[in-house]
From TrEMBL:
An annotated GO BP: amino acid transport
Keyword Lyase: no
Lineage, broadest ranks: Bacteria, Pseudomonadati, Pseudomonadota, Alphaproteobacteria, Rhodobacterales
Cellular-component GO terms for this entry: plasma membrane
Superkingdom per UniProt: Bacteria
Name the record gives this protein: Amino acid/amide ABC transporter membrane protein 1, HAAT family
InterPro entries (UniProt xref): ABC_transp_permease, BCAA_transport_permease
Bilayer topology term: Multi-pass membrane protein
Organism per entry: Sedimentitalea nanhaiensis
Transmembrane segments: 16-35, 42-64, 102-123, 190-216, 237-258, 270-298, 310-328
Cellular compartments annotated: Cell membrane
Keyword Transmembrane helix attached: yes
Length: 343
C-alpha cells in the first residue's frame, strides 16, 4: 500500500506538468485552431526565467576585508551581492532564497510578450493552412528557441534551488497512519502539485465566470457568429495565446527546482504533452487535464522495478500504448468533441 501511495504521488507530480502544458496547448488549439509544437519551448523559457532572475539577484561585487587575511597574509577579498547591499543581509538573502517563486512575477510579462510576438509575427499567417504546415513551422520555431537558449546558457543543466524551507522531505505516511519514514516525499513536489491545481482552477474559473472567458468559449464553439455580433474575437484569441504562454512559463518556473533547466527540456515534455492532448480529446480543456494526471500516474506505476522486471521497457512506452488503446476505442479521445480535426 505504501508503494502504491508513493507512486500515486509521483504520478500526480508528473501529471501536473503534463496537464499544465497540455492545458496551454489545448487553449491555443481550441481558440486559434493551431497545433502549436513550439509550446514546449515556452515551458523551457519559463524555466530559464527562473535561472535568469537567480543570476540577476546574485550579481556581486568584490570588497577588501582588512580584518581578515588569506593564506598568504593578504587582506581577504569578499564577494557581496548588490541585493544584500541595497536591502540588508537578511532581506537580501531571503530575496535570493525565494528567487524561484519571485520568478513567477518576473516571467508573466516576458511570457505574455513572447506569446504576442509569436502569434502576431508568425502563427497568424498559418491559421488557414493545413495542420501539417502548422506543425512544421512551430516545430522549427521550437528548435530555433532551443538553440538560442543553448547559445546563451550553454548545454549543461543549471541547478536552480527551491527556497530553503521547501528543500527537505515530508513524512506523508505519518498522516495516513504508516510507520515513520515509510512514505517520504519532497516538499517542493507537493508545492508544485498545489500550484498546478491552483493555476488549472484559475484558468477554468476565468473561462467559466468572466465575460471575457464566456466570449472566448463562444468563439471556440462558433467563431463566425461571434464575429458577426461586432466582437473583435481575433484580439481576444491573441490575448488567450498570451495567457497560454504565461501558463506554460509559470509551469516551467516552478518545475526548475525539480529538474535543472536545460535547453532540451521543452522537447522532452512537448511530445508527451501532445499525446496527452490527443488522448484527452483535441480542443477539450477538461480532457487535457484529466489525461495529464491519468497518464502521469500510469507512467509512474510503469516505472516501478517490479513492473519493469515483468515487462522490460514498459516505462518508456506506457503512455503511447495507452494512447493507442484509447484512440482505437474512442477515436476522439476521452472527452473529444465531434468535428474537431475531422474532415
Amino acid at each position: 500500500m505504501d508503494a502504491i501511495i508513493l507512486q500515486i504521488l509521483n504520478g500526480l507530480d508528473k501529471g501536473s506538468a503534463y496537464a499544465l502544458i497540455a492545458l496551454g496547448l489545448t487553449l491555443i488549439f481550441g481558440t486559434l485552431g493551431v497545433v502549436n509544437f513550439a509550446h514546449g519551448a515556452l515551458f523551457m523559457i519559463g524555466a530559464f526565467c527562473a535561472v535568469t532572475l537567480n543570476k540577476i539577484l546574485t550579481i556581486s561585487y568584490i570588497t577588501i576585508d582588512e580584518t581578515r587575511t588569506d593564506f598568504l597574509g593578504n587582506p581577504l577579498k569578499v564577494e557581496n551581492t548588490y541585493i544584500e547591499r541595497w536591502f540588508g543581509p537578511e532581506i537580501g538573502s531571503a530575496i535570493i532564497d525565494w528567487s524561484v517563486p519571485l520568478a513567477i512575477l518576473f516571467s508573466i510579462p516576458i511570457m505574455v510578450a513572447i506569446g504576442f510576438i509569436m502569434e502576431r509575427g508568425l502563427i497568424k499567417h498559418f491559421y488557414r493552412r493545413d495542420h501539417a504546415d502548422q506543425i512544421l513551422v512551430t516545430f522549427g520555431l521550437a528548435i530555433v528557441l532551443q538553440e538560442i537558449i543553448k547559445y546563451f546558457y550553454g548545454a549543461n543543466p543549471i541547478p536552480t534551488p527551491a527556497p530553503e524551507v521547501f528543500r527537505g522531505s515530508f513524512d506523508f505516511g505519518m498522516l495516513l497512519g504508516f510507520d515513520p519514514n515509510v512514505i517520504i516525499y519532497p516538499y517542493w513536489r507537493l508545492v508544485y502539485f498545489s500550484f498546478s491545481a491552483l493555476i488549472i482552477g484559475a484558468v477554468f474559473a476565468f473561462l467559466q465566470f468572466t465575460t471575457f472567458g464566456m466570449v472566448v468559449r463562444a468563439g471556440m464553439a462558433d467563431r463566425e457568429t461571434v464575429g458577426l455580433l461586432g466582437i473583435n474575437i481575433d484580439r481576444r484569441f491573441t490575448i488567450m495565446f498570451g495567457i497560454a504562454a504565461a501558463v506554460a512559463g509559470m509551469a516551467g518556473v516552478m518545475y526548475a527546482p525539480i529538474n535543472s533547466p536545460n535547453y532540451h527540456m521543452g522537447m522532452d515534455f512537448l511530445v508527451l504533452s501532445f499525446v496527452v492532448v490527443v488522448v484527452g480529446g483535441m480542443g477539450s480543456l477538461p480532457g487535457a487535464v484529466l489525461a495529464g494526471f491519468l497518464l502521469g500516474i500510469l507512467e509512474s506505476f510503469a516505472s516501478m522495478n517490479e513492473v519493469k522486471t515483468l515487462l522490460p521497457g514498459i516505462d518508456q512506452i506506457i503512455i503511447y500504448l495507452v494512447a493507442i488503446i484509447i484512440l482505437l476505442t474512442r477515436p476522439r479521445g476521452l472527452m473529444g468533441r465531434k468535428g474537431v480535426m475531422e474532415e
